[in-house]
Design brief:
- This protein has 303 residues and is α+β, with helices and mostly antiparallel strands.
- It is 27% helix and 34% strand.
- The protein contains eight helices and 14 strands.
- The strands form three sheets. Strands 1, 5, 6, 7, 8, 9, 10 and 11 form an eight-stranded mixed beta sheet that branches. Strands 2-4-3 form a three-stranded antiparallel beta sheet, with no helix packed on it. It has a three-stranded antiparallel beta sheet with strand order 12-14-13.
- Helix 1 runs antiparallel to helix 4.
- It is globular and about 75 Å long.
- It starts with 8 loop residues before the first helix and ends with a helix.
- The model has no long low-confidence stretch (mean pLDDT 88).
C-alpha cells in the first residue's frame, strides 16, 4: 500500500539547529569527529562515574565494549591523545551524539580544545595557549547563533573538571551544560601528558526548548556612540556578572553594551579585593547624546 511520507516539524527544526551549531563550531576552527558509543568498563573508574548510574551491555562482544558511554568527553579525550601522539600542535574537536545512563539517554553536544592557538600577525607569528576563556567564547558564539540570551556562567564543582575551573551554564532554572578544565588525573589516565585540555558538554534537549533561529531586522545606527569606563574595587566574591546586572538595570535605554575590559590585583588593591574596569557603550536612536544623559541614578551607586 502506498502512504504519504510523514514529516515532523519538530525534527526538522532540531535538525536545522544542529546544522547551525555545526557551522558555528567549524567557523571557530573545530573539526567534527565521530567516536564509539561503546566503552571499556575501566572508563568508569577513570571518570569516577558511579557504577549504579551506568548502562551496561548484557551480551558484549568483548570486554572493550561493555559500557554505553555516559559522556561524550571520553571519546574526545581519546581522539586528542591520538592526535597529540601524531605531533599535532593543537587539537580542536567536537561531536554531536547520544549519551546513556541507566534511566535515560539524550543527545549531547561536546567539544574540547588542547594546545596553542597560532596566529599570523603583522609583527610576526604569535602563540597563545588555549584556556577556559576560549571555551567560554565558543559557547557565547553558539548561544548567539541559537538566539539564546540571558544565560549565566556559574562556578560549580562537577564530575570531570578541576575544582576552581569548573562551571555550569544556567538559563533560568535550567542547567544547559557544563564546561571547564579536565582534571589532571583523568588526562594522565588517557595518556595525555604535559598538556591541558578544556572542554564543554551541552544538553541538546534543553537547548531545543529555548532556541530561536528567527531574526528581526534593525536599521544601522545613525547617531554616534559614546563609551565610558567604570573602574571599581570589589570584594573578590562579587562577580563581574552581578555588577553588570546592576549597571544594565540602572543605566537606562541608551545603554547598548557592557563588557569587562580589565581585572587587576596589586599593591594598590587591598587584600581580599579586586579591581575591575567595565566599558559601557551608549547610543540613542533619535539624537546625539550629551554627558548629562549618562548619569547613573543614586540607586545604582548604593547598590
Amino acid at each position: 500500500p502506498d502512504f504519504p511520507p510523514r514529516i515532523d516539524e519538530r525534527d526538522l527544526r532540531d535538525k536545522k539547529l544542529q546544522d547551525k551549531l555545526r557551522s558555528v563550531l567549524i567557523s571557530q576552527g573545530l573539526n567534527e569527529v565521530i567516536t564509539f558509543s561503546l566503552l571499556n568498563y575501566k572508563i568508569l573508574g577513570i571518570l569516577k562515574y558511579p557504577d549504579e548510574e551506568a548502562r551496561f551491555i548484557l551480551n558484549p562482544l568483548n570486554s572493550e565494549q561493555r559500557l554505553l558511554r555516559p559522556t561524550l568527553l571520553a571519546g574526545l579525550l581519546d581522539v586528542i591523545r591520538i592526535n597529540l601522539n601524531r605531533k599535532q600542535e593543537k587539537v580542536l574537536i567536537f561531536e554531536q551524539g547520544r549519551r546513556f545512563t541507566k534511566a535515560t539517554e539524550e543527545t549531547m553536544l561536546a567539544f574540547a580544545v588542547c594546545g596553542e592557538d597560532i596566529k599570523c600577525l603583522p609583527q610576526g607569528r604569535h602563540k597563545e595557549e588555549y584556556s577556559i576563556f576560549h571555551i567560554k567564547g565558543i559557547l557565547e558564539e553558539l548561544f548567539f547563533a541559537a538566539g539564546i540570551g540571558k544565560y549565566e556562567f556559574n562556578a560549580k564543582t562537577t564530575l570531570y573538571f578541576s575544582e576552581g575551573s569548573s562551571f555550569v551554564v544556567n538559563l533560568g532554572d535550567s542547567e544547559l551544560g557544563v564546561f571547564g578544565e579536565i582534571r589532571p588525573e583523568i588526562l594522565e589516565a588517557f595518556d595525555i601528558k604535559n598538556k591541558r585540555v578544556f572542554a564543554a558538554e551541552m544538553q541538546m534537549e534543553k537547548i531545543y526548548q529555548f532556541f530561536c533561529l528567527s531574526r528581526q531586522y534593525r536599521p544601522l545606527p545613525v547617531y554616534p556612540a559614546i563609551k565610558r569606563d567604570i573602574s571599581l574595587i570589589l570584594k573578590q566574591d562579587i562577580t563581574a556578572e552581578q555588577v553588570k546586572d546592576v549597571i544594565i538595570r540602572n543605566a537606562g535605554h541608551n545603554l547598548k553594551d557592557v563588557s569587562v575590559i580589565d581585572c587587576y590585583y596589586g599593591r594598590q588593591i587591598p587584600e581580599g579585593f579586586k579591581g575591575i574596569v567595565f566599558s559601557c557603550l551608549y547610543r540613542s536612536d533619535d539624537h546625539t547624546l550629551k554627558d548629562t544623559c549618562l548619569l547613573y541614578t543614586s540607586d545604582a551607586a548604593d547598590e
